[in-house]
User: What shape does this take?
Amino acid sequence: MEFFNKIVHYFDAHPGYELLMAFMSLVLSTLPYLYRFFTKRFHLKAAPIAYRYFSYGSNDTNFKINLAIQVVVTNLSEVPCTITQIFLIVGKQEKYVSAASENIFSIESFGKKTGEYFSLPLPQNLPPHQGINGCLIIPNFNIKINELKNSKCALKLICGNKIKFIPINFSTLHTPLYL
Assistant: This one.
């Protein structure tokens, strides 16, 4: 109690402390808002769910092996975010993810197409607190499955001037039939 009495008597003897206290209260009251503004600017959460090797064409010269990765990306920030490019990093190699929407497969019933599934086109615009789910296509993928499971892999999401790396462990991912 003696300590607080000394502080009160010191400020009582030295005028002008009101201005200092007003400035301190201004700084301390705006700090939480500034902190929240800068920490919530870019916050993406992404998780790969499944993958599948597939090919277009037959056993002729146009036979290409492609990789499809199903991912879920959620924008947890307060502002919209646009994913402009995505790369798959396998070891030290960077593989470009196709930006065009490609037909992955079609479902036919009684000779008629009843459904078509396409990959995610880029760029993808994510509104605040919303997400997307879909497949990413890596064309002309010439890495074997055993090498893919044993190497260090990551997805590199580029959103303007921000970059997010998502690690992928292909040995624990599912390989469903619907991809």
